[in-house]
Every structure is written in structure tokens, then in C-alpha cells.
Amino acid sequence: MAGQSEQTSSRPAAVHIADEIYAIYRNVAGVLYVAPKVIRFVVSKECVDKKSDESYKKYMERLKGKEFSKTEWKRHGGTIAEDLSHPDDLDITGLYALLEKLSRLHDECWRSVALADSENKSEGDLATATSSMSGGGQPNNNEELPGGDTKCPLEKLSRLGMNGLPRDVDKLFDKLRKVKNLRNEIMHEFEVTLNNEKFSELKTALSELIEEAERVYSLPQSEVEDQKKNLHDDFESLQTTDKKSIYYWCTRLAMSGKLAVKNLWKTKLSKETLPLLNSIVQRLEVFHALDVMVREGPNGQVLPYTEIFKAPEKAIIVSGVAGAGKTTLLKNIVLQFFELQEGNADYLRQFNQLILFECRDRTTETLADVIKQHFKELCRELEGKRNVLDALLRLDALFIIDGYDEVNKVSTNVVEEIIKKTSSSNCRVLITTRPHSAKEKLEMLLATNDVISTEFEIKPLTELNEQLEFLARYEKSLGIKKGEMTESFKTLNNDVRILFTEPINLILFCDMHKHMPETISSWEKPGDVANDILRLYKKLVTRKLADVTHLECEVMLDDLFVVIGKAALEFIRENTVTFSEKELLQVKRKCIQILKSTVECSSEIILSVVLKVNRPLSGAGKTTYTFHHKSIQEMFAAEFIVQRILARNDSLKSILKAKPKEMSSLREVLQYAVQGLSRLRPGAA
Predict the structure, then answer these.
(1) For a designed S-S bond to 624, which of 283, 333, 336, 578 qualifies (C-beta 3.0 to 4.6 A apart)?
(2) What mean pLDDT value characterizes the chain?
(3) Do the beta carbons of residue 310 and residue 454 sit within 8 Å?
(4) Is 3.30.450.40 the CATH classification of the domain at 255-458?
């Protein structure tokens, strides 16, 4: 073997790569194509009583004699779609789960029939004895005849195996687990994927599975031999690499797909810029591991975020209020995905590919375009993004959808396509959203595509020690003297500190500590904090204006913030958090008109502080602009509402100009507005 290794290493690189492709191709095609065929054969023998047009759900309901409620099916059916009637699209994992559920249910049927027959026999014996004692051989009119044998709903499937004894499926599932484990090793451990011996191991394991199925289902010898011949022919067909096969595309993704995604995202996500400090920190260094709460199930059940993928459902929804850390959590999950080789983030080992899509994206029109952004070179080499997408859907890919509450007309199409395409694949989807969006549009979208989901809500940082731990990470990363910022935070009263249960507000506290530390001690109500954050923006703009004028700018700044606040409200009303150059042009024009009355300067001086340039993380599409966080956009919009009410006593309806369906987008804005009015007019709100 050592000599062989030496010889291999001296080969030209192209030959070495060809050998790797060959090894991976055979192993991948073996577990994605050949193995599912064999297991589907076993499934067909297990459910011979199922009608061809009957879904597995309807079949199971028929055997149980009752319908499943939605909650019961979610618990019992797992990832099996309600309308699934054929296992053609299921891979080894899905087939194993289906066979396990069917086998367990069939055993329950036989046990219940045996129990009923036993009870009927006991009742019959008792009735006979009673009749004899009363001197008559026939029951009187008030007696019931003992029931005959209870009819079993399984008419074709035999409870007896080849040896005439009750069947024992334990060995069958041992063989299945061996195949399933080989599949997981090949698909998730690259070194195993390269191992030529795994190809032979898989063939042997599948042959043994067929032999065990023969014993469990009393199969005729001719049928068993046919299955073994098909198995042999399928493995022989994989001795030559077919570059037009979808399994060749899967092979290329297995070889270089993860590296392509790493090159796209790692540099762009590894650093975090604080909203107003313009300071850069390493994202993983300041990441605070968040806990999540299960929305359904035991009340108050709290889990580490790393356990969300233990849920069996296809789609995982992570919800949280504004600034709860949803996007930050996703970005850290993406970064951790690239550390699997280092033994970290084992909870992500079940996935071999990852796709990230931001709902605020207004330029990427189709899922195929998303795939091209992630695998540009492969799409070019494999003759099209559609081929790469088809291959991706055969793998264990994780599709991450960030910010469903920020979805727009363009990104809606992409999200719908992701949900639809992944619904019948082995891929999973992780979606973040604000809670109200999760309950409404998103659940409807998932239900329409028969996708079962579970929801986790990010747990707020309510404990002082959690908040201090969060701030301490930034304190260290920003080079602030140890304890300086955390000690300042400790001085806050409980009414104010309750505002800092979300990560974005704690980050804004870092900004306030840097630029306006003297204001922190004056905070008495939550409304004071939002007001001072807006004051901080004005202070930073004033510093910029000081470079071009020595005139008093306070009134002008108030007017500028009215323009910006009105625009913020209008964009939120339309559920828009990213603005194109064209959309921002009207705001710029109004700002210029106000600036000209006091000083000659560009509107960029103002907008560069309030907004940030937002180039799509994928590198594709046009540059857009956003507020530093959606919650900050909501603060600006709320301040506009408050000032309109105070200055003109306008009605809320006339200020919002919102249609009923737009009101859900304004919930957080109105909460900030109430805080502002409470601060300025105690008792008015």
C-alpha cells in the first residue's frame, strides 16, 4: 500500500484528480441511485396492502381506523409529505424512516388483532359456561354472541417469515442501518467519499439486505435472483464515469462545491462593522451563543441554538423581534459550516452543501441565479446553472433564507421556488423572520407546498449576567478598558435595562458609550434611549457639517430628519428595507433643498451617516442603501410620527396613510411612537 501511495503521488495532477472523480462518482452514485432502488423494493414488499393511488398518510389512517390531526401527523409522519403515494423521490434516509413507520404500524395491527381475538375467546368461554350452568345451550334474546375472529386490515402482508414463525424485522433493520451509515459516511466525510473500498462495501451490504428481505417476506427465489442481478448490473454500469449523468454533477459538487461557497461568503461575513462606531470586529469573536424557545410543545422549553436541526421537520423557522440577532445567528452558522474539518460545529455535519439567500435582495430573480452566484465556475463547466441545481437537490443541502419579513416582489419568487424545489428533496430549509410574518404568510406558503415545519423563537437576553457577557465580548474586541462599558451598563435602572434584551440594542449601547457616555446616566424611561440614539445621529452629522460650515445647523437638521423619517415610514409601509439609487433620489433632492438654505454641500454628508451602502453579499446586482438596522429605520419613522402629532396634532391615520394589509409592517414603528409620546407627553399615550 505504501508503494501504491508513493506511485499515486508521483502521477500528474490531472490523472490524480481523474482518479478522485472516479472514486467519488462511484460512491455517490451508489448511495444516491443504486441503494434507494434496493430499499424501494423492500418498501414495496412491506406495503403490499397499500393501494397504488393511496397516500402513505391515508394508508396509515386506514390501518389505524382514524384520521391523524395535523399535530399528530407532524409528530407521527415526520418529514413524510401528506400526499406522498410513491417513494420514488425519497433517498435512503427518507426510505428508512418510512419503512420504520410502516413496519411499526403493521406490528401494532397484528398485536391489536391478536389481543381482540384473545378477549373475544375469553368472553366466549365465559358465555358458554354461563349458558351451561343455566341449563340451556342457546343464549337468550338479551345475550350477545361472542364475536368471531377480528378481521385484520392487512390482507396480503404475512406476519410469518420464511421459516413459518412470526417475522423478525430486527435483522432487516440492522442491514438497513448498515446501508444508511455507509450513506452518511460517504456523503459527509470527504476522506470516506474518496475510499474505493466503500463501493464494494456498499454492494455487499445491499446484497445482504436483499437476502434478509427474502427471509422476512418469504420471497420466491426467482425474484431474489432478479434483484441481485439488477444490483450487479447497476454497479457494473458505474465502472465508467458518465459526464452527462446527474451523479457526475453531484460528484463535482462534492469535490469543489463547499470550497466555492466558502470563497463566496467567508471573507464577506467574517467581519462585523458596528452601526455608528465604524469599528470592525471579528464576527466569531463577539458571537454570543443564543438560546431558542420551542414555539410548540412544553411551555418554556429552552434549547441551545445548535439543537434546532434535531427537529425532524423539513423547514426550521427561527423567529425573533427586531434586533433579536436572527441575521447574526445565520451568518455565524454559515461561518461555522466551514469549520467542520476542524472538529467544530458538529451539529452542521449532516449537511454537505449550503446556500444563503437574503430576502432583502431585489435583483436576484430566480433560484437558478442564486445557484450561479454560489457556484459560478461549476455552472460554467457543467453547462448551466439548472444542472447544478438538479444535482444540489440530490444532496444534503441546507438552504438558508434570511429575513422573510423583508421579502419583496422579486425575492418572493425566489423564496417560493426554494420551498417548492426542496419540498420533495433531502434538503432542509432554515428561515428567519419576525414572529408575525411567521404566523401569517410564511406558514401559508409552507402549507401550500405540503412542507412540515417547526418554529423556534430566539430567547431575549433578560438576565443581567447575559447582557454583561454580551457586552464584555465587544469591550474586549474594541479594545475598551475591561469593565468600563459593563460597569456603565450596570447603573441602568430596570425600566431602562429591559430595553436591552436584544443584541442590536446592546450594540447600540456600545455606540452610545463611545460617543455620548454622559447621557447614559440620564436615562429614566425606554423612550429616552431611542431619543438619544436619534440625537447621536444628529451629533455625528453635525461633526460632518463642521468641516464645511461654522453656522448653526440645529433647525436644518430637524428639517432633514423629518425628510428622512418620512421616507423611512413610506418604505416600511411598503415593506422595503433596501433602497435603490432611483428610490433614494427623491430623498436626496429634498435634502439638497434644505441644505442650500444654510450651506452648500452634498446630501451625501447626511445620508452617509444615516444610511450604509449595501452591496449584495453575493457580489451580484446593483448597489443599494439601507439603514444600519431595520429597528433604526423604525425609530426614524416613529420620530416623524411623533413630531407630526406634536406640531400639527394630525391624526395617526392621516400620517400613516396605510392600507389594512400594510399595518402589520408598522407594528414596531407604532411601539417606538408610543414610547416617544410617553416621554414628551406623560399620560398622552
Answers:
(1) 578
(2) 84
(3) no
(4) no
